[in-house]
Amino acid sequence: MTQDLSPAERYAAARIRAAEQATAFAPFRDMYEFDLDPFQVEACRALEAGKGVLVAAPTGSGKTIVGEFAVHLALTQGRKCFYTTPIKALSNQKYSDLVKRYGPEKVGLLTGDNSVNSEAPVVVMTTEVLRNMLYAGSQSLRGLGYVVMDEVHYLSDRFRGAVWEEVIIHLPESVTLVSLSATVSNAEEFGDWLDTVRGDTEVIVSESRPVPLWQHVLAGRRMYDLFEEETDHGGRGAARREVNPDLVRLARMENSRTYNPRDRRRGKVVREADRERERRQRSRIWTPGRPEVIERLDAEGLLPAITFIFSRAACEAAVQQCLYAGLRLNDEEARQRVRTLVEERTATIPGEDLHVLGYYEWLEGLERGIAAHHAGMLPTFKEVVEELFVRGLVKAVFATETLALGINMPARSVVLEKLVKWNGEQHADITPGEYTQLTGRAGRRGIDVEGHAVVLWQRGMDPGALAGLAGTRTYPLRSSFRPSYNMAVNLVSQFGRHRSRELLETSFAQFQADKSVVGISRQVQRNEEGLTGYREGMTCHLGDFEEYAGLRRDLKDRETELAKQGAAQRRAAAADSLEKLKPGDVIHVPTGKFAGLALVLDPGLPAGRAGGHRGGCEYHDGPRPLVLTAERQVKRLASIDFPVPVEPLERMRIPKSFNPRSPQSRRDLASALRTKAGHIVPERHRKPRSSAADDREIARLRKELRAHPCHGCDEREDHARWAERYHRLQRDTRQLERRIEGRTNTIARTFDRIVALLTEMDYLRGDEVTEHGKRLARLYGELDLLASECLRDGVWEGLSPAELAACVSALVYEARQADDAVAPKLPSGKAKAALGEMVRIWGRLDALEEEFRINQAEGVGQREPDLGFAWVAYQWASGKGLDEVLREAEMPAGDFVRWCKQVIDVLGQISAAAPPEGSTVARNARKAVDALLRGVVAYSSVG
Asked: Where are the alpha helices (DSSP H) in 463-619?
């Protein structure tokens, strides 16, 4: 090729190659055995040019290479790089990857409860750790050049997402930000915001998967392609994809052949032969069992596979089902390799704990190449599963959706059992974004030619809806940012109230809220143009017609108001007269279907009405008398039948033997009614004089109207029609303006309410943060203010370390499912009293939040402390054995370890925030940490 170039062209090409070799990117690219994709090259070059980058690309496409280039740049330039992740497991994995490349002396790890070489030039950490460092003004921030935010789309998470925005807003301007995101539909919008708050940011979006993805549905013995002809191979082209007609026919057949034992044919119950024929016709449609699915995938060469099941218990059950079915995916050599690695990784776990943790059942599954993976597992066990899966020694994993969060665990196939999951509040369909995230694990780059996503057939499945999920490759990024008490005191401490308010208005949440009013603002502008035209149409040469129209409107409004008052008074008078009725009163029903003479059998008074006769029924919507009409009908009347008050015309005795259900009884009593009162002519109700005739306001308005110059205009009614249109449009415009006002400055208004409450409680005094406020600034978490108040009131003074651990657990623990039926078991003595006092303090704070309009439904405020882990934390901190603690806790080991670590994290904060002198809390908090950090909690994982 170069032989065809002229000398000048060859010289120019050589200069370009020389320039590229002089960049930091060239040696970095040489570290990889494969060629980088165009989006990776573009992002790395933008980084080297000094720009921030937002990279949005599918799961498994290699976004992290851009983050690794930021690490390479920092080391080349002698600066620091912080690599942040949303979960500890991902931090541990990235730490291991970077240590392999750069050595342990250059890489550190910070995950809240663990610190490894924290002053290294490259530190991997959870996002919360970096947020806390920023607020504390940590010395570790000196020399920081790059921050990588892996899985930045996590800022949509309603519980933790705000932390990502806090970091992005508060990072020093000198820091270059690298944001790595799954494919989101509003990447440009997010990039615009990053450009606003961080400076020049390049947005790089890649829709292409590195490994094509094929979509299937497994029904019975057959694997159907979801699409008739998947010519775009999972997003590489723009070809139109049609749902496989075989699948559509299958769904139609299942719906039409549903057997009902109550069906009747020719007057006889369906015969057994008919049922058998029906069963044979439907025999192609069933949901295969879990062992059957794995065997099928193995036979078709589609292992290793991850089967996503949205239940921890179901993941464990799936492994047991495969074991009982005799499934073996490993040969003897692989079994030995598995056993060797497992024994090596679990050597530090005491033998007595292994049995409690279900080690031997877990090991049997691993040796056969089958495992579960979920948050309830011991972290060490999860990490072993991940390592074995990557090495190809575990070939079938049953996992919850937490595995899809970025852990490097790709498979050839992904199986989805159902398209419905529990979202914490209800069973809901998975979203297109969740489907993309889950199926993104399918297809290992450099290993597989193609990946496969398999959805199991379920009764009532709609292939069209599934195709919609699979065809929607993106989902929008929505901010979950809300100010908190800790955030407020930290911001005021650093920037003062005014500057803090301005900073919050730069959040992505406010950016999105402001953009959402753009359409409304345009409508307001169009309305204002219309108002100008209407104003011209109602212009009168005799005077100000807008003023005249206002008088007409005021007059109409006053007349309407008086008419409503009159109608209400008449209804009240009619209801009052009905309440005075007694059984035996003869009345005249003025209107309605049953107008005419009637005898009251039961006055039907409202429920709880004092005095008067009370019949068999009571009503909440006014009296509803039961009457016998002169035409022998017994009917329950309503207030609508009495627009005017009613007076008894006569009295009659109702025989005790009267039965309203007996036609003879009704006939006899109706005859007596006609004889007794048929000749009486009821008084005609006179309509009362209108209150408008004597109303001074109406008289004044009519006088001003007649005196107005426009009253004599020949085109007065034409002008009035234009004025009415003007008024309606003006009213609509004001409503739109109120909507705009409600959406703008929403974050700042919430901040103002939080600051007002903190000022009331003496945490803030203007721009000054009090001693109480400084303590609150060191407490992070959902119940930060409650923790601060407990320290302030000395609730935890005099508690033992185990008792303190029990109390602190209430600040972090949240039961997976609310169970108000059974009161949690609590430690006795001081701990129980302290927990009770914590709940009382929360009640006081809750009342204050209501007073200051701080709404928990909007993600702001203090939830009620959950005492469900207090006994477990107390037992473990008291030195009880794992077997006893887990048996009483009735929770998986992984959950136990996770909650213990969160308690340890908050205890660390409390030891730093508590008064160093004259208080036992700081010392006992440190002792409680030591008491909790033992056994499975201590050796559970690196981070």
From this structure: 463-471, 485-504, 508-516, 518-537, 545-579
pLDDT, greater one: 703 or 686: 703
Cα(783)–Cα(862) distance, rounded to whole angstroms? 6
Q: With beta carbons less than 8 A apart as the criterion, state whether 634 and 601 touch.
A: yes
Pairing of strands 634-636, 122-126: unpaired
CA dist 938 → 802, 879, 904, 934 (Å): 17, 14, 11, 5
CB of 872 closer than 8 Å to CB of 887: no
What gap in Å lies between CA 604 and CA 294, rounded to an integer?
Answer: 69
Query: 250 near 286, Cβ under 8 Å?
Result: no
Tell me how far apart the alpha carbons of residues 738 and 774 are, in angstroms, rounded to a whole number: 38
Q: Residue 838: which pLDDT band, with cuts at 50, 70 and 90?
A: very high
Looking up tokens 């930091």, which residue turns up? 24
Question: What pTM was computed for the model?
Answer: 0.68
β-strand partners of 113: none
Contact in structure between 459 and 254 (CB atoms under 8 Å): yes
Percentage helix, strand, coil for the chain under 3-state DSSP, each rounded to 5:
50, 10, 35
* DSSP, res 243: B
Enumerate the β-bridge partners of residue 147: 82, 177
Find out whether 485 and 754 touch, Cβ atoms under 8 Å: yes
CB atoms within 10 A of CB 654: 15
Residue bearing tokens 């001693």 = 771
Structure tokens at 130: 């970096």
* Cβ neighbour number for residue 365 with a 10 Å cutoff: 24
Is residue 617 scored above 70 in pLDDT? no
Secondary structure of 75-144 as H, E, C letters: HHHCCEEEEEECCHHHHHHHHHHHHHHHCCCCEEEECCCCEECCCCCEEEEEHHHHHHHHHHCCHHHCCE
Give the tens place of pLDDT for each residue, 862-879. 888 988 899 999 999 998
Nearest to 870 by CA among 900, 905, 897: 900
What amino acid is encoded at 512 in this protein? Q
Q: Scanning the structure block, which residue is given the tokens 């249109």?
A: 725
pLDDT tens digits for range 420-445: 776 556 667 777 777 877 887 788 77
Decide the pairing of beta strands 176-181 and 52-56.
parallel
d(CA 897, CA 918): 33
- Would you mind telling me the total number of residues written for the chain in this entry? 943
Farthest CA pair distance, the chain? 128
- Nearest CA-CA partner of 451 in 58, 759, 816: 58
Q: Is the pLDDT of residue 262 over 80?
A: no
Could you give the residue ranges of the DSSP H alpha helices within 777-859?
A: 784-792, 801-812, 830-851
In this structure, what are the phi and psi dihedrals at residue 782, rounded to the nearest 5 degrees?
-65, -35
**Residue 718 near residue 712 (C-beta atoms within 8 A):** no
In the block, tokens 């949440």 appear at 509
Residue bearing the bigger pLDDT, 600 or 936 = 600
Output the pLDDT for position 903.
92
Q: Are strands 213-219 and 768-769 parallel, antiparallel or unpaired?
A: unpaired
Burial class (CB in 10 A: 0-12, 13-18, 19+), 506: middle
Q: How far apart are CA 144 and CA 671, in angstroms?
A: 102
**Pairing state between β 626-629 and 634-636:** antiparallel
